[in-house]
Design a protein that fits this description.
This protein is α/β, with parallel strands linked by helices. It is built from 44 helices and 46 strands. The radius of gyration is 38 Å and the shape is elongated.
Length: about 1250
């Protein structure tokens, strides 16, 4: 093939004929962005984000669809290209009415992922919720109690008629308290030290937070605090009934646990000089707060009995003594949270009357409404629209009253609140004994001269309000190594604002310490609905069910004459769960995966660069597994195309034209009205959050941990990625694996993972005693199982291995039977009673990846979409894109496959149809003699016996009415060079398998590349049953039981004289007769999956002892005497063999229940029986390799005569509880939609 020479970005490259610019660039590591391109699909060129500049070309060209030609000179990143891409993104965003982040998170000064941690709380992942919060706010338990909650003000629940936001702070506190009370409270990993040291002035919220963030970067932090204890305003300004000191100390301990040290009673500028800090540290962060109180600013404020509110609160904490206000009247002036703390503290100090004097209305009070409510419950009285004008003293200079003036509301001021205006002549007098002024605070910078006198360069300055001057984006001061944060920079603010400032200062400080430019962090692009249209109550009406807020339990009012914490916290998980349900999930779940957001951020695109109309549709949740949100759709048509080209369902389409175009289900208002297979391919290709999974738990925009493993449903062997937090799986996506190189997965993998999160999993061995199960230790359970084996004769025990188990587990099961129990009674209910045809077909299966070379595909009884969809995607792609004809042979009167094939053959019998084809070829001498002579045995006998049967009789049984159409089929199949027949084992019998093998040999198609047979098995390791010898009469490696060489070899490895044998018919006979005393069933549910439940039930009930190993209490487990917990693939590690005999390894990532995986249970059981084994999956695998070393290369293929059909499917769902469970869930989900 002649190569094509082109130049991309001044680099000479060679490409292949037919290759696109994007494909060639990608092969050479040159990234070209695109939103409409998916490597699985034919290029579409709709987004125009992938445009490039081609020298001499007219305009910019889409790289995804433009084929390379000789001598092309291409620029992928010129200014013209960048401008065009930005314009394309601007246009897409102009019709993107969606929120990247929920309003609560956008409003939080620290940017706490509220929606994320609420989702984690809903799942019971309290420590994970705390970890998420502490990414930006280390003071979780503190803020859960005393945050001013701007997030709740922004909560859209407020727009509904419930009257209250989600209890965000209550939930934060709940998770924090649960984490604090756990045996191992969450702590981050401590990084390697950088060798840099930072001094921090002030151990308040800003200083503590700065230390947290810097310690997590590896920098050593020393905090200097002027007071006797750390906490700053948290300890000295907030009373214990709101924020207990032990909570503060626990938060402090977490920060010192990272390595920070705190030095108390050290005042900056007094006994701690900047000169000392400059010499010992690489940087300094000043977080001093604003803790100097102010008085009333009116005549007489110097009177005895007038205090600043913060001095009043601080003195009580410093001295440990409460004021005695018994019988006294106290006036608190102000409307903020400090005023609330003062008035409620005064009540606890015994005051007879407590007044709050505030110059505005209650609605405009900045204090937390809950604090206002609780103060009223405690007896505080309010004087609104009132303002002190003078303090009146007695002759001793002690306050006796305060004169106030009435106020009225004027025009709004800079805060947005209406300005209070005095009403002339409205003065009135209030008798009081004490006045607490809670109207403002100032920053004390008495260290300024000390700093500037020791500074080597630059200057520390303050503004006209006396606050430290710092760059607002980095909080770097005029001295490059000095940063400042918190109230000392902003003036009096909130705890959460101090935390946010600390993070900014820590980021700037980290940049400085690591030699990076100290510059503000670039804000990320965020789509906001409010950028396009305000969200109103009417827009949310009828979309959410009414859910009243779960209120905070509090101490009764008559029990509050002390400083015990008033708010008690949610009392149970159930209460917290109910409150999490109120979250409206405003933010997009695809925040971290959205390609539109990533590119908009990269190219500086904006949401309201272009005006005009935009879509504002209701999201569609009608499909039980798939959500559609057209507001987020960018019309890339990837979902439409993948549904057509791969799924073959054509369930989605583009409706209307021009600016009115939108994606919609093809045949109705819901996907459930279409031919949608629920494959999930549309979800996998969507570049935004327009199509997402409809999950049964609260979704959230989280960064997940990922685990790469193998799907444990069907036999294709798809690599998948589990997206999880602490083992709770929230999503499954496809990985590019050995078999599914394109990353495709089906509904079983994409939606069938939810059992992993089911808390009803078996977690410990269970022993039946007196009719009920009791937990026992693994040692007791294994000892009992071993005892039952020893007490019985070898022939009285049988061992069954499920087709979902790993090769290593299956190998150990048959070894346990043969070497441990001395019996050949080993097999799988999955194949029980179904003959050996499947085994022979498995030996010569065409690998799935060879489907790409097929010239014609026949689906014999196979509906891949029903049980093995991924090969079905390949078949659909070949048909749609390459034009490969697909024919469907079925005994069903109707099937969804009819719409995905070119021709349907309706027959009555697969067996007679295949046999008729063989008869037709042999009778006419059309067999491939050359192939047969070179590769096959038994042909003459088979030919003789088949031709002795009457073709007319065989043909009659096929159910076909036209011999002409049959002959057409026969001629086409025989002449087709690369014809592949795909069949599903659950649809055809053992005899059909054998006859298919005979047919493939007669036509010379068996065992050749891209032709022959592809058997789709039901389970992920059905092939492993044969390979590992979990089949009567079969040894590991599929070696025949009576192969003396194999027997001797394996017996030698196991240390045995001989290996006991058994036949499948013997196993069924013993089950029917009740001859089996002990049944050991690993990973199967024969009763739950039985076609004949009565027969299977008798097998179980007649056994004296039944042991079952499974994930859940299946119907079989419910009948067992002993139940062992099974381990999931990601808890086990090992290998699977797919239907094409591709062996794939997967790793262990999680600990199973009891930290006792399935293979370890088997080894322990054999230990009790004196059988030696490897002690890890790797060692077991090495033993398997040594056993298989005796296997010879396959001999010639053998034609085998059959004497009639023998359909005998005894168990459905692959005899697997998981498959049965998901199949039922799937059917029920759609039944509930009706």
């Amino acid at each position: 093939m002649e190569q094509i020479n082109i130049i991309i970005n001044e680099k000479t490259l060679t490409g292949n004929p037919g290759e696109t610019i994007m494909e060639l660039a990608g092969r050479n590591g040159i990234k070209i962005p695109s939103l409409c391109h998916d490597r699985r699909l034919v290029p579409f060129s709709s987004c125009y984000v992938c445009v490039v500049e081609v020298e001499g070309g007219r305009g910019l060209q889409p790289a995804c669809s433009t084929r390379i030609t000789e001598g092309m000179v291409i620029s992928t990143d010129s200014p013209k290209v960048q401008k065009s891409r930005k314009t394309s993104l601007d246009l897409l965003l102009s019709n993107h009415y969606a929120d990247c982040l929920a309003p609560c998170t956008q409003t939080c000064p620290a940017g706490v992922d509220v929606q994320g941690y609420i989702s984690l709380i809903e799942k019971g992942l309290y420590s994970e919720a705390v970890a998420l919060i502490r990414e930006v706010n280390p003071l979780t338990a503190i803020c859960g109690r005393v945050c001013v909650r701007p997030c709740e003000v922004a909560c859209r629940r407020n727009l509904l008629d419930e009257g209250s936001a989600v209890g965000i702070d209550y939930l934060k506190r709940f998770a924090s308290d649960r984490d604090m009370g756990s045996p191992s409270p969450w702590m981050p990993d401590i990084p390697e030290p950088t060798g840099k040291k930072v001094a921090i002035i002030g151990a308040g919220p800003g200083g503590l937070s700065a230390a947290w963030f810097l310690q997590r970067k590896g920098h050593k932090c020393d905090i200097y605090e002027a007071n006797p204890h750390p906490g700053g305003w948290l300890r000295y300004g907030i009373p214990e009934y709101r924020l207990p000191n032990d909570i503060i100390q626990k938060e402090v301990d977490a920060i010192t646990g990272l390595g920070a040290e705190i030095f108390v009673n050290r005042r900056f500028g007094a006994d701690l000089s900047y000169g000392e800090i400059r010499d010992k540290y690489d940087a300094l962060i000043i977080t001093i707060g604003s803790q100097r109180g102010t008085l009333l600013g009116c005549r007489g404020e110097e009177a005895e009995g007038v205090f600043s509110g913060i001095d009043f609160l601080r003195n009580m904490e410093m001295t440990g003594q409460r004021y005695d206000f018994t019988g006294k009247k106290v006036a608190v002036v102000g409307g903020g949270n400090t005023a609330m703390d003062c008035c409620r503290t005064s009540v606890r100090c015994g005051a007879e009357k407590v007044y709050v004097i505030y110059r505005r209305t209650e609605k405009e009070m900045p204090a937390n409404p809950i604090e206002i409510h609780e103060s009223k419950v405690e007896g505080v009285e309010y004087m609104f629209l009132s303002n002190p004008v003078s303090v009146n003293k007695n002759d001793d200079g002690v306050v006796r009253s305060v004169t106030c003036i009435r106020m009225k509301q004027g025009e709004p001021d800079d805060s947005g609140r209406r300005r209070p205006v005095p009403v002339k002549g409205s003065e009135f007098e209030v008798e009081v004994d004490y006045i607490l002024a809670a109207i403002g605070q100032k920053t004390d910078v008495d260290f300024l001269e000390d700093v500037n006198s020791h500074a080597a360069e630059g200057k520390l300055e303050v503004n006209r309000w006396g606050d430290i001057v710092a760059d607002p984006g980095t909080l770097q001061t005029g001295i490059h190594s000095v940063f400042a944060a918190g109230d000392g920079v902003t003036g009096p603010a909130t705890i959460i604002e101090a935390v946010a400032q600390a993070r900014t200062a820590a980021t700037g400080c980290h940049q400085y310490l690591t030699g990076l430019p100290v510059e503000p962090v670039k804000p990320e692009f965020l789509s906001r609905k409010e950028n396009m249209k305000e969200v109103t109550a009417g827009m949310l009406e009828n979309r959410y069910i009414k859910q009243q807020r779960q209120e905070m339990p509090v101490l009764p009012a008559d029990k509050r004459n002390n400083f015990d914490e008033v708010e008690l916290g949610y009392e149970s998980d159930e209460v917290a769960l109910r409150e999490t349900a109120r979250c409206m999930e405003c933010g997009c779940t695809e925040l971290y995966a959205c390609e539109l957001r990533r590119l908009s951020d990269e190219y500086g695109a904006g949401q309201n660069i272009y005006g005009g109309s935009f879509r504002d549709d209701e999201p569609d949740y009608s499909h039980p597994y798939i959500e559609l949100d057209n507001n987020k759709c960018i019309l890339c048509a990837r979902c439409v195309r993948i549904c057509n080209e791969l799924a073959g369902a054509n369930a989605l389409g583009l409706v209307q034209r021009g600016f009115s175009t939108y994606v919609a289900p093809a045949l109705g208002n819901s996907l459930t009205d279409t031919r949608c297979d629920s494959c999930g391919l549309c979800i996998s290709t969507c570049p935004t959050g327009a199509i997402t999974e409809n999950v049964p738990f609260k979704p959230s925009p989280l960064k997940w941990d990922t685990v790469r493993t193998i799907c444990n449903y069907c036999s294709v062997g798809c690599k998948i990625i589990l997206h999880h937090r602490s083992g709770f799986v929230m999503r499954v996506t496809g990985a590019r694996g050995e078999v599914n190189d394109d990353g495709n997965i089906c509904r079983y993998a994409m939606f069938g993972y939810r059992y992993i999160n089911d808390s009803s999993r078996i977690k410990t061995p269970l022993l039946r005693e007196n009719g009920r199960f009791i937990p026992v230790s693994f040692e007791k359970a294994i000892s009992l199982a071993a005892q039952k084996i020893r007490e019985s004769s070898p022939g009285e025990s049988a061992f069954f291995g499920g087709a979902r188990l790993s090769n290593e587990e299956l190998y150990l099961i048959q070894k346990l039977a043969r070497a441990g129990a001395g019996t050949g009674n080993t097999g799988s209910f999955h194949y029980l009673g179904r003959g050996t045809g499947y085994r022979y077909a498995a030996d010569v299966a065409t690998p799935i990846d060879q489907l790409d070379g097929a010239s014609r595909i026949y689906l014999l009884g196979a509906d891949p979409g029903a049980g093995n969809p991924v090969p079905g995607f390949t078949v659909n792609r070949l048909r749609k894109v390459k034009g490969v004809p697909v024919e469907f042979i079925t005994t069903q009167s109707s099937s969804p496959m009819e719409y995905k094939v070119d021709r349907v053959w309706r027959i009555a019998s697969y067996y007679h149809f295949v046999k008729a084809l063989s008869h037709y070829y042999l009778d006419r001498g059309m067999e491939n003699r050359l192939y047969i002579n070179d590769n096959c045995t038994g042909f003459d006998k088979y030919r003789e016996e088949l031709l002795s049967e009457d073709f007319a009789d065989i043909f009659r049984e096929t159910g076909l009415s036209s011999i002409d159409s049959f002959e057409e089929f026969a001629q086409t199949y025989n002449k087709e060079t690369n014809a592949i027949i795909i069949f599903q084992e659950c649809e055809v019998s053992d005899a059909v398998c054998l006859e298919l093998l005979n047919l493939a040999m007669i036509t010379g198609k068996l065992g050749k590349i891209s032709m022959g047979l592809l058997a789709l098995k039901e389970k992920n390791n059905s092939q492993g049953l044969f390979d590992m010898g979990v089949f009567p009469g079969i040894l590991p490696g599929s070696a025949g039981q009576f192969s003396s060489e194999a027997e001797a070899h394996i017996a030698g490895i196991w240390g045995l004289d001989r290996i006991p044998g058994a036949r499948e018919n013997d196993l069924i006979r013993m089950l029917d007769s009740g001859a089996l005393k002990n049944l050991f069933i690993f990973g199967e549910d024969p009763l739950g999956c039985a076609v004949d439940r009565n027969r299977t039930g008798k097998w179980l009930s007649s056994a004296g002892f039944t042991m079952v190993q499974d994930y859940f209490m299946s119907e079989t487990a419910e009948m067992a005497d002993l139940v062992l917990p099974a381990s999931l693939p990601a808890e086990t590690g090992g290998t699977y063999s797919n239907t094409g005999k591709v062996i794939q390894q997967f790793e262990k990532f999680f600990d199973p229940p009891g930290k006792y995986p399935g293979w370890m249970q088997l080894i322990s059981l054999m230990d009790h029986l004196g059988i030696k084994n490897g002690r890890s999956p790797e060692e077991i695998r090495n033993e398997i390799f040594s056993v298989l070393s005796c296997c010879r290369a396959p001999g010639p293929y053998q034609l085998r005569t059959t004497n009639g059909d023998n359909a005998n499917l005894m168990f459905s769902h692959g005899c697997d509880y998981l498959v049965k469970r998901f199949d039922k869930e799937y059917k029920d989900a759609f039944r509930n939609q009706v």
